[in-house]
Write a structure and sequence with these properties.
It is built from no helices and eleven strands. By secondary structure, the protein is mainly β. It has one domain (5-152).
Amino acid sequence: MLAKRFALFYIFILGIVLLATVKSSSAQEVVLYASQAPVKVGSWTSDPDSSAAGGARLTNPDAGLPKLTAPLASPSSYAELSFTATAGIPYRIWIRGRAHNYSPYNDSIYVQFSGTVTGPGGGAIYRIGTTSGVDINLEDCLGCGLSGWGWQDNGWSV
């Protein structure tokens, strides 16, 4: 069974739009506006921003902490968004974000899911409550730079 819910942990990106695309010949899109996350725990807020998709952004202020190297199993700050996925169909996540002060220390998140598996009959992967997650890093490479809003689908390009 694929994800029915996913959570963003320690997002320092100022605004995010999550776009899950179905990889098939008749591509479908599921668009979630992070600013409308029904669950915001810790320092998360939804703030008006005319430059953000939907006119608002989801914000977690820069606390001056070092960048995490893995998601936390029990974070004190996170946001959750949900959608109903169809079992057996692979999805790809795209996130639109902008780093606070265009800093590479404020440009990444970990995404975790409920119900995800590695494939048909596969094991659990990137689950909520674990230290496993998908790394989404807005900057394409070390030193590439950040400027304004951008889209990213996973870690750094090679």
